[in-house]
Design goal:
This protein has 388 residues and is α/β, with parallel strands linked by helices. It has 13 helices and 16 strands. The chain starts with a strand and ends with a strand.
Length: 388
Protein backbone atom coordinates (compact mmCIF):
# COMPACT_ATOMS: atom_id res chain seq x y z
CA UNK A 1 0.00 0.00 0.00
CA UNK A 2 1.24 3.51 -0.87
CA UNK A 3 1.31 6.13 1.89
CA UNK A 4 0.42 9.74 1.06
CA UNK A 5 1.23 12.51 3.56
CA UNK A 6 -0.75 15.77 3.26
CA UNK A 7 0.97 18.84 4.70
CA UNK A 8 -1.97 21.14 3.84
CA UNK A 9 -5.67 20.63 3.36
CA UNK A 10 -6.17 19.16 -0.11
CA UNK A 11 -9.62 19.15 -1.69
CA UNK A 12 -11.46 15.85 -1.10
CA UNK A 13 -12.40 15.96 -4.79
CA UNK A 14 -8.78 15.14 -5.51
CA UNK A 15 -7.95 12.85 -2.60
CA UNK A 16 -10.91 10.59 -3.34
CA UNK A 17 -9.18 9.65 -6.61
CA UNK A 18 -6.66 7.59 -4.63
CA UNK A 19 -8.12 4.04 -4.47
CA UNK A 20 -8.56 3.25 -0.76
CA UNK A 21 -7.40 -0.33 -1.22
CA UNK A 22 -4.05 0.84 -2.55
CA UNK A 23 -3.43 4.21 -0.88
CA UNK A 24 -3.39 5.43 2.72
CA UNK A 25 -3.88 9.20 2.79
CA UNK A 26 -3.46 11.23 5.98
CA UNK A 27 -1.80 14.25 7.54
CA UNK A 28 -0.17 11.90 10.07
CA UNK A 29 1.29 8.99 8.07
CA UNK A 30 4.93 8.10 8.63
CA UNK A 31 7.42 6.96 5.99
CA UNK A 32 5.35 8.43 3.14
CA UNK A 33 5.80 7.47 -0.50
CA UNK A 34 4.56 10.91 -1.55
CA UNK A 35 3.84 14.29 -0.01
CA UNK A 36 1.02 16.58 -1.13
CA UNK A 37 0.98 20.24 -0.16
CA UNK A 38 -0.07 23.73 -1.11
CA UNK A 39 1.69 26.52 0.79
CA UNK A 40 3.51 24.52 3.49
CA UNK A 41 7.18 25.55 3.60
CA UNK A 42 9.26 22.40 3.15
CA UNK A 43 12.74 23.93 3.18
CA UNK A 44 13.31 23.06 6.85
CA UNK A 45 11.27 19.88 6.71
CA UNK A 46 13.21 16.60 7.05
CA UNK A 47 12.97 14.57 3.84
CA UNK A 48 11.91 10.98 4.63
CA UNK A 49 14.05 8.22 3.15
CA UNK A 50 10.85 6.60 1.86
CA UNK A 51 9.84 9.63 -0.22
CA UNK A 52 9.42 9.08 -3.97
CA UNK A 53 7.42 12.14 -5.09
CA UNK A 54 6.19 15.57 -4.00
CA UNK A 55 3.01 17.09 -5.42
CA UNK A 56 2.18 20.80 -5.18
CA UNK A 57 -1.51 21.64 -5.65
CA UNK A 58 -0.68 24.86 -7.45
CA UNK A 59 1.89 26.25 -9.86
CA UNK A 60 4.62 27.86 -7.76
CA UNK A 61 7.16 25.64 -5.99
CA UNK A 62 9.25 28.22 -4.11
CA UNK A 63 8.17 26.62 -0.83
CA UNK A 64 9.71 23.28 -1.87
CA UNK A 65 13.44 22.36 -1.79
CA UNK A 66 13.46 21.34 -5.44
CA UNK A 67 17.25 21.14 -5.77
CA UNK A 68 17.65 18.83 -2.78
CA UNK A 69 14.83 16.58 -3.98
CA UNK A 70 16.29 16.49 -7.49
CA UNK A 71 19.59 15.18 -6.15
CA UNK A 72 17.65 12.32 -4.59
CA UNK A 73 15.84 11.53 -7.83
CA UNK A 74 12.49 12.71 -6.46
CA UNK A 75 10.23 14.47 -8.98
CA UNK A 76 8.30 17.53 -7.85
CA UNK A 77 4.92 17.84 -9.55
CA UNK A 78 2.84 20.99 -9.90
CA UNK A 79 -0.45 21.88 -11.60
CA UNK A 80 0.10 24.50 -14.32
CA UNK A 81 -3.18 25.86 -15.65
CA UNK A 82 -5.43 24.28 -13.03
CA UNK A 83 -5.99 27.62 -11.31
CA UNK A 84 -5.60 29.79 -14.42
CA UNK A 85 -9.21 30.93 -14.62
CA UNK A 86 -9.29 31.89 -10.93
CA UNK A 87 -6.21 34.09 -11.26
CA UNK A 88 -7.33 35.58 -14.58
CA UNK A 89 -10.65 36.60 -13.04
CA UNK A 90 -8.85 38.30 -10.15
CA UNK A 91 -6.66 40.23 -12.58
CA UNK A 92 -9.82 41.51 -14.24
CA UNK A 93 -11.21 42.48 -10.84
CA UNK A 94 -7.94 44.26 -10.07
CA UNK A 95 -8.13 46.30 -13.27
CA UNK A 96 -11.70 47.36 -12.49
CA UNK A 97 -10.88 48.15 -8.85
CA UNK A 98 -8.04 50.44 -9.93
CA UNK A 99 -9.80 52.00 -12.91
CA UNK A 100 -12.96 52.95 -11.03
CA UNK A 101 -11.31 53.82 -7.71
CA UNK A 102 -13.61 51.31 -6.07
CA UNK A 103 -11.74 50.82 -2.80
CA UNK A 104 -11.38 54.52 -1.98
CA UNK A 105 -14.98 55.14 -3.06
CA UNK A 106 -16.14 52.29 -0.85
CA UNK A 107 -14.24 53.72 2.13
CA UNK A 108 -15.83 57.12 1.46
CA UNK A 109 -19.34 55.66 1.32
CA UNK A 110 -18.80 53.47 4.38
CA UNK A 111 -17.80 56.45 6.52
CA UNK A 112 -20.67 58.74 5.54
CA UNK A 113 -22.72 59.98 8.48
CA UNK A 114 -26.07 61.75 8.86
CA UNK A 115 -29.61 61.18 7.75
CA UNK A 116 -30.28 59.43 4.47
CA UNK A 117 -31.05 62.82 2.92
CA UNK A 118 -27.78 64.24 4.21
CA UNK A 119 -25.86 61.16 3.02
CA UNK A 120 -27.44 61.52 -0.43
CA UNK A 121 -26.17 65.10 -0.66
CA UNK A 122 -22.70 64.06 0.52
CA UNK A 123 -22.66 61.36 -2.17
CA UNK A 124 -23.51 63.82 -4.92
CA UNK A 125 -20.88 66.27 -3.68
CA UNK A 126 -18.20 63.62 -3.17
CA UNK A 127 -18.49 61.30 -6.16
CA UNK A 128 -16.48 63.66 -8.37
CA UNK A 129 -13.43 62.63 -6.38
CA UNK A 130 -13.70 59.06 -7.67
CA UNK A 131 -14.10 59.56 -11.41
CA UNK A 132 -12.49 56.63 -13.21
CA UNK A 133 -11.76 55.39 -16.70
CA UNK A 134 -13.13 52.55 -18.83
CA UNK A 135 -11.12 49.60 -20.12
CA UNK A 136 -12.04 49.48 -23.85
CA UNK A 137 -9.35 50.94 -26.13
CA UNK A 138 -6.80 50.99 -23.32
CA UNK A 139 -3.64 48.92 -23.79
CA UNK A 140 -3.00 45.90 -21.58
CA UNK A 141 0.54 44.57 -21.35
CA UNK A 142 0.79 40.91 -20.33
CA UNK A 143 4.25 39.77 -19.24
CA UNK A 144 4.31 35.97 -19.34
CA UNK A 145 2.05 34.02 -21.68
CA UNK A 146 1.62 30.75 -19.86
CA UNK A 147 -1.76 29.29 -18.93
CA UNK A 148 -2.75 32.32 -16.86
CA UNK A 149 -1.23 34.99 -19.08
CA UNK A 150 -3.00 33.65 -22.17
CA UNK A 151 -6.36 33.79 -20.39
CA UNK A 152 -5.67 37.32 -19.18
CA UNK A 153 -4.66 38.44 -22.69
CA UNK A 154 -7.74 36.84 -24.27
CA UNK A 155 -9.98 38.42 -21.62
CA UNK A 156 -8.49 41.79 -22.46
CA UNK A 157 -9.35 41.37 -26.15
CA UNK A 158 -12.90 40.36 -25.19
CA UNK A 159 -13.23 43.60 -23.19
CA UNK A 160 -12.22 45.70 -26.20
CA UNK A 161 -8.68 46.39 -25.04
CA UNK A 162 -5.53 46.43 -27.10
CA UNK A 163 -3.23 43.72 -25.78
CA UNK A 164 0.54 43.35 -26.04
CA UNK A 165 2.02 40.05 -24.88
CA UNK A 166 5.65 39.32 -23.97
CA UNK A 167 7.09 35.87 -23.37
CA UNK A 168 10.46 34.80 -24.80
CA UNK A 169 9.62 31.19 -23.89
CA UNK A 170 6.14 31.09 -25.43
CA UNK A 171 5.23 27.48 -26.24
CA UNK A 172 3.45 26.32 -29.36
CA UNK A 173 0.57 25.07 -27.22
CA UNK A 174 0.02 28.46 -25.59
CA UNK A 175 0.52 30.33 -28.86
CA UNK A 176 -2.33 28.35 -30.40
CA UNK A 177 -4.58 29.30 -27.47
CA UNK A 178 -3.78 33.00 -27.80
CA UNK A 179 -6.29 35.26 -29.53
CA UNK A 180 -4.89 36.34 -32.89
CA UNK A 181 -5.61 39.97 -32.01
CA UNK A 182 -2.95 39.90 -29.28
CA UNK A 183 0.24 41.61 -30.43
CA UNK A 184 3.26 39.51 -29.50
CA UNK A 185 6.57 41.24 -28.94
CA UNK A 186 10.09 40.13 -28.11
CA UNK A 187 10.79 43.39 -26.28
CA UNK A 188 9.87 43.89 -22.64
CA UNK A 189 10.61 47.60 -23.05
CA UNK A 190 7.93 47.81 -25.76
CA UNK A 191 5.32 46.45 -23.36
CA UNK A 192 6.35 48.93 -20.68
CA UNK A 193 6.37 51.91 -23.04
CA UNK A 194 2.92 51.36 -24.56
CA UNK A 195 0.73 49.82 -21.85
CA UNK A 196 -1.87 51.50 -19.68
CA UNK A 197 -2.12 48.34 -17.58
CA UNK A 198 0.75 45.93 -16.95
CA UNK A 199 0.23 42.50 -15.40
CA UNK A 200 2.88 39.92 -14.52
CA UNK A 201 2.48 36.15 -14.93
CA UNK A 202 5.97 34.70 -14.70
CA UNK A 203 7.58 32.24 -12.26
CA UNK A 204 9.94 33.52 -9.60
CA UNK A 205 13.57 32.78 -10.45
CA UNK A 206 16.82 34.68 -10.51
CA UNK A 207 15.97 36.17 -13.90
CA UNK A 208 12.56 37.48 -12.80
CA UNK A 209 13.34 38.73 -9.29
CA UNK A 210 12.88 42.53 -9.25
CA UNK A 211 11.78 42.31 -12.88
CA UNK A 212 9.98 45.61 -12.36
CA UNK A 213 12.46 48.03 -10.84
CA UNK A 214 13.34 51.74 -10.89
CA UNK A 215 15.02 51.51 -14.28
CA UNK A 216 12.08 49.81 -15.97
CA UNK A 217 9.47 52.02 -14.28
CA UNK A 218 11.11 55.02 -15.94
CA UNK A 219 10.31 53.43 -19.32
CA UNK A 220 6.57 53.17 -18.62
CA UNK A 221 3.78 55.52 -19.62
CA UNK A 222 2.52 58.09 -17.15
CA UNK A 223 -0.39 56.92 -15.04
CA UNK A 224 0.02 53.18 -15.58
CA UNK A 225 -1.76 50.58 -13.43
CA UNK A 226 0.51 47.72 -12.32
CA UNK A 227 -0.92 44.35 -11.30
CA UNK A 228 1.01 41.51 -9.69
CA UNK A 229 -0.77 38.24 -8.97
CA UNK A 230 2.33 36.20 -9.71
CA UNK A 231 4.97 36.38 -6.96
CA UNK A 232 5.79 39.17 -4.50
CA UNK A 233 9.50 39.48 -5.36
CA UNK A 234 8.92 40.00 -9.08
CA UNK A 235 8.01 43.61 -8.38
CA UNK A 236 10.31 45.79 -6.28
CA UNK A 237 8.00 47.43 -3.77
CA UNK A 238 10.28 50.41 -3.07
CA UNK A 239 10.39 51.15 -6.79
CA UNK A 240 6.60 50.84 -7.01
CA UNK A 241 6.03 53.28 -4.14
CA UNK A 242 8.51 55.73 -5.61
CA UNK A 243 6.73 55.43 -8.97
CA UNK A 244 3.38 56.16 -7.34
CA UNK A 245 4.72 59.13 -5.40
CA UNK A 246 6.20 60.76 -8.52
CA UNK A 247 3.05 60.15 -10.57
CA UNK A 248 4.47 57.57 -12.96
CA UNK A 249 2.24 54.82 -11.55
CA UNK A 250 -1.45 55.49 -10.93
CA UNK A 251 -2.13 52.39 -8.83
CA UNK A 252 -0.64 49.07 -7.78
CA UNK A 253 -2.85 46.03 -7.20
CA UNK A 254 -1.24 42.89 -5.83
CA UNK A 255 -1.83 39.70 -3.86
CA UNK A 256 0.97 40.28 -1.35
CA UNK A 257 0.39 42.66 1.59
CA UNK A 258 3.43 44.11 3.35
CA UNK A 259 3.82 46.85 5.94
CA UNK A 260 5.06 49.25 3.28
CA UNK A 261 2.20 48.55 0.88
CA UNK A 262 -0.96 47.75 2.79
CA UNK A 263 -1.85 51.26 3.98
CA UNK A 264 -0.86 53.26 0.91
CA UNK A 265 -3.82 55.08 -0.63
CA UNK A 266 -2.88 54.11 -4.21
CA UNK A 267 -2.16 50.46 -3.43
CA UNK A 268 -4.67 47.63 -3.13
CA UNK A 269 -3.31 44.53 -1.46
CA UNK A 270 -5.28 41.29 -1.33
CA UNK A 271 -4.51 38.29 0.93
CA UNK A 272 -3.11 35.95 -1.74
CA UNK A 273 -6.52 35.21 -3.26
CA UNK A 274 -5.26 34.31 -6.74
CA UNK A 275 -6.18 30.63 -6.66
CA UNK A 276 -8.66 30.83 -3.78
CA UNK A 277 -11.79 29.52 -5.42
CA UNK A 278 -13.51 26.22 -4.80
CA UNK A 279 -13.11 25.35 -8.46
CA UNK A 280 -9.38 26.11 -8.58
CA UNK A 281 -8.66 24.15 -5.41
CA UNK A 282 -10.58 21.17 -6.77
CA UNK A 283 -8.89 21.38 -10.17
CA UNK A 284 -5.42 21.58 -8.58
CA UNK A 285 -6.14 18.66 -6.23
CA UNK A 286 -7.48 16.43 -9.01
CA UNK A 287 -4.57 17.22 -11.29
CA UNK A 288 -1.82 16.67 -8.71
CA UNK A 289 -3.38 13.46 -7.38
CA UNK A 290 -3.65 11.98 -10.87
CA UNK A 291 -0.01 12.85 -11.59
CA UNK A 292 1.37 11.47 -8.32
CA UNK A 293 -0.78 8.33 -8.56
CA UNK A 294 0.39 7.60 -12.11
CA UNK A 295 4.00 8.08 -11.07
CA UNK A 296 3.76 5.77 -8.05
CA UNK A 297 1.92 3.06 -9.98
CA UNK A 298 3.49 3.35 -13.43
CA UNK A 299 6.57 5.57 -13.20
CA UNK A 300 5.09 8.10 -15.62
CA UNK A 301 6.04 11.75 -15.17
CA UNK A 302 3.84 14.66 -16.24
CA UNK A 303 4.18 18.28 -15.11
CA UNK A 304 7.32 17.86 -13.04
CA UNK A 305 9.40 20.98 -12.46
CA UNK A 306 12.69 19.10 -12.15
CA UNK A 307 12.47 16.02 -14.39
CA UNK A 308 11.31 15.63 -18.01
CA UNK A 309 7.84 14.49 -18.99
CA UNK A 310 8.11 10.75 -19.65
CA UNK A 311 4.90 8.82 -20.29
CA UNK A 312 4.93 5.28 -21.67
CA UNK A 313 2.00 2.85 -21.88
CA UNK A 314 2.42 -0.30 -19.80
CA UNK A 315 3.25 -3.54 -21.56
CA UNK A 316 2.82 -6.98 -20.01
CA UNK A 317 6.40 -6.81 -18.79
CA UNK A 318 8.04 -5.58 -15.62
CA UNK A 319 8.82 -1.88 -15.38
CA UNK A 320 11.91 -0.11 -14.06
CA UNK A 321 12.37 3.65 -13.72
CA UNK A 322 15.76 5.30 -13.35
CA UNK A 323 16.38 8.92 -12.38
CA UNK A 324 19.94 10.02 -13.02
CA UNK A 325 22.28 12.87 -13.73
CA UNK A 326 22.29 13.80 -17.39
CA UNK A 327 25.66 12.29 -18.30
CA UNK A 328 26.86 10.27 -21.35
CA UNK A 329 26.69 6.48 -21.64
CA UNK A 330 24.02 6.03 -18.98
CA UNK A 331 21.53 4.08 -21.11
CA UNK A 332 24.31 1.84 -22.44
CA UNK A 333 25.42 0.96 -18.90
CA UNK A 334 21.86 0.16 -17.84
CA UNK A 335 21.27 -1.95 -20.95
CA UNK A 336 24.50 -3.87 -20.36
CA UNK A 337 23.42 -4.86 -16.85
CA UNK A 338 20.00 -5.99 -18.07
CA UNK A 339 21.57 -7.99 -20.91
CA UNK A 340 24.00 -9.67 -18.52
CA UNK A 341 21.01 -10.82 -16.41
CA UNK A 342 19.22 -12.17 -19.49
CA UNK A 343 16.52 -9.50 -19.46
CA UNK A 344 15.08 -8.40 -22.81
CA UNK A 345 13.86 -4.81 -23.16
CA UNK A 346 10.27 -4.72 -24.47
CA UNK A 347 9.94 -0.95 -24.49
CA UNK A 348 12.05 2.01 -23.41
CA UNK A 349 11.78 5.80 -23.22
CA UNK A 350 14.61 8.10 -22.14
CA UNK A 351 14.49 11.89 -21.86
CA UNK A 352 16.61 14.58 -20.27
CA UNK A 353 15.95 18.01 -18.80
CA UNK A 354 18.94 20.21 -18.12
CA UNK A 355 21.16 18.35 -15.62
CA UNK A 356 18.74 15.46 -14.99
CA UNK A 357 17.42 12.55 -17.03
CA UNK A 358 14.80 9.87 -16.60
CA UNK A 359 14.34 6.46 -18.18
CA UNK A 360 11.40 4.04 -18.24
CA UNK A 361 12.08 0.41 -19.19
CA UNK A 362 9.74 -2.55 -19.60
CA UNK A 363 11.53 -5.92 -19.52
CA UNK A 364 10.25 -9.42 -20.19
CA UNK A 365 11.04 -11.06 -16.84
CA UNK A 366 10.96 -10.33 -13.15
CA UNK A 367 13.91 -8.20 -12.06
CA UNK A 368 15.94 -9.41 -9.09
CA UNK A 369 17.03 -7.14 -6.21
CA UNK A 370 20.64 -7.80 -7.21
CA UNK A 371 19.99 -6.41 -10.70
CA UNK A 372 18.28 -3.32 -9.31
CA UNK A 373 21.17 -2.82 -6.91
CA UNK A 374 23.67 -3.11 -9.77
CA UNK A 375 21.86 -0.31 -11.60
CA UNK A 376 21.83 1.83 -8.45
CA UNK A 377 25.61 1.48 -8.24
CA UNK A 378 26.14 3.15 -11.63
CA UNK A 379 27.79 6.51 -11.07
CA UNK A 380 25.20 9.23 -11.63
CA UNK A 381 22.12 7.13 -10.86
CA UNK A 382 19.95 8.92 -8.30
CA UNK A 383 17.01 6.57 -7.84
CA UNK A 384 15.81 3.23 -9.19
CA UNK A 385 12.26 1.98 -8.80
CA UNK A 386 10.60 -1.27 -9.75
CA UNK A 387 6.98 -1.75 -10.82
CA UNK A 388 5.84 -5.37 -11.17
Amino acid sequence: MFKILTLNNISPKGLERFPKKLFEVSSEVTNPDAILLRSFKMHDYPIPESLKAVGRAGAGVNNIPVEELSKRGIPVFNTPGANANAVAELVLAGMLIASRNIMSAWEFAKNLQGTDKEISKLVEDGKKNFVGVELPNKTLGVIGLGAIGVKVANNGIALGMKVIGYDPLLTVERALQLNSAVTKTSSLDEVLAHSDYITFHVPLMDETKNLLNDTRIKKMKEGVVVLNFSREEIVNEDAILSGIDNGKIYAYVCDFPTNKLKNHSRVVTLPHLGASTEEAEENCAIMVVDQVKDFLQNGNIKNSVNFPDVEMPRTEGHRISIANSNVPNMVAQISAILSKEGLNILDMLNKSRKEYAYTLLDVDKEVSPLTLDAIKQIEGVLAVRYYK
